[in-house]
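Reposting from the mailing list since nobody answered there.

I have sequence plus structure tokens for a pair of proteins and want to know whether others read the tokens the same way I do. The first protein:
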Amino acid sequence: MQSNSRVTGQLPAVRVRPAVAVLALALVAPCVGVQAQDTSAVAAPVSSSVPIRDAEPVIVSGALPGRGMWKVSKGEHTMYVLGTLSPLPRDMEWTSRDVVRVLEEADEVMTGYGVRVDADVGFFGKLAMLPNVLGARKNPDDRLLKDVVSPADYARWLVLKQRYIGRDSGVEKYRPVFAAAELYQEAIEDRGMSTSSVIDPVLNEAVKRRKIKVTAPRLTIKVPDPKRALKSFRDEQLGDRACFSKTLDNLEADLDRMADRANAWSVGDVEALRLVPQGDQYEACMDALTGAQALRKYGPADLEGAMRSVWLEAAEKALAGNQVTLATLPMRELLKPGNYLETLQAKGYTVEAP
């Protein structure tokens, strides 16, 4: 895998739908690089009796500092790690003197981590596979959502669907993980939030102006027969009921908490981010997707661990070769126990939290 490239233009623009579907999209979209984004704003499971409250869209105005960088160093070599968060208020203006200062000195920018599916099917092959890719979102055997989730969860789904999606019947054919992703996206957009990056424009400007090297650590999964892989994925029943249920928990109770996290991130209040409860929607959905036999056949058994190893390898290489590096990681990965930077610390690097 070629992880380093000299870039004199913009960083790759990656529009990622909710992270609950990242790995599935990677599987069914050959030759597409999928970058992991943070979805830390998830709640612990709550009772389905919790009412849905009407609230105004979240609006944050003005230029916000967005500080909160970790510092990793060994000798005179330093890496600053900026925690990212999604979703954030739509049209939010983000600037950070600290980040801009680092970019003025940086020899390299490292962007997140993720998966790249390598399937050599060519341009026309991709077009021919498009109907199959779209079909992979549907439940096998023409089953509907109500046939594969619990009656209690389906009743909750109908309430939330009516509120955020409306009368669209097509989504009723989706697998739970994709239905959850669609509902999540519509809900956060309804609340004035977005998964679009506010950091990329700041990084892009510096990369283009200073011709900074960009590294995008990606785990490459080679799929020699994408048509067979797609057929296998379409025919497989995923264990994604927990993902679906916890997404409903999230949307019933945690939209306001998402706003609290967004506001804390925007002013660099890491302590506040630590205090906001986090659930396991992301983990449940990732587990469902990484457990798919169609993916396990081609990728490593521990996909999360493999992505982590790729990032750590790139980080150590950057620390050895650069005086100053700026890296980004989802805030979720920086705050949880046993995180990426704790691994670097165990290897002898000095890590300073913001």
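The second protein, same order (residues first, tokens after):
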Amino acid sequence: MKKLKVLWLSALSCNGNTHAFFNYPNLEYFLENFEFIYHPVIDSEYSLEDIVSKEIQCDILLVEGSVSKEFTRADVPILKIIKKYAKKVRKIVSVGTCASYGGIFKNGAYKDVTGLFFDEEKEIDILQEFRYKAINISGCPVHPDILVNTLFAIKQELKLKLDNLLRPKEYYAYSIHNGCTRNEYFEYKVDNHKFGELEGCMFYEHGCQAPFTHGSCNKILWNEVNSKTRAGLPCMGCTEPSFPRENLFSTKKNMGIPQELPLGVNKRTYLTLAGITKAFTIERLQKKLIDD
């Protein structure tokens, strides 16, 4: 079976996606199907200097981290290296939220920090000519299953349906709220008052972004065990262009109503549902919180 040749470039990055990738349980099988011509952490056939000075055959370009015209690798602007290989490869995959939208490094020392194809929700022209090859896999970090499954879909030449932010709908057509084990608490507005507790919803007081964040965190669990909301932490919205936001653990409200409502729910509908919910007192849901 022919291996696809993969180039993994690290731009402005904490390498979080690399370390998440190392948690993929079937890494040996992955490496039977893909070959890294270069990876910043894994031993590979070529050095970064080879990648810069030569033209190595490559099928998929993976970029981790934000990009800036000022940022260099091997004394060469990272954008020049990316454009060089963007012409050659079958697909360009932005690995993580920084590569997708700019992420946390937008607030750093470098100027004009963006994602490869988006600056927040606005298209940019850094790689506009290669947009037809682009796939964004946002997340901080990306779940290794989502990354690997996307690469296998490319290998098998499957047609991936993408959303308006170039993310595979297979993984980003849902909200994080979908599959959350706290949905019943959300429905009856039973709030959690302490991180790490198993009971209560964190949307109403603690800034949980799950109802308006796209992703599969509660469908494809980390280490096949857990997610933030299952562990008792609010979703931080890390798959969205607005990440990171300020005041992560508080819910901004206007006259007691959350400023940002769940996807597809307008204010009138929300107020109607909230009014109905107030008519119910579910002792089973309230008891543990009251006992604590």
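Reply #1 (J.P.):
I read it the same way you do. The radius of gyration is 21 Å.
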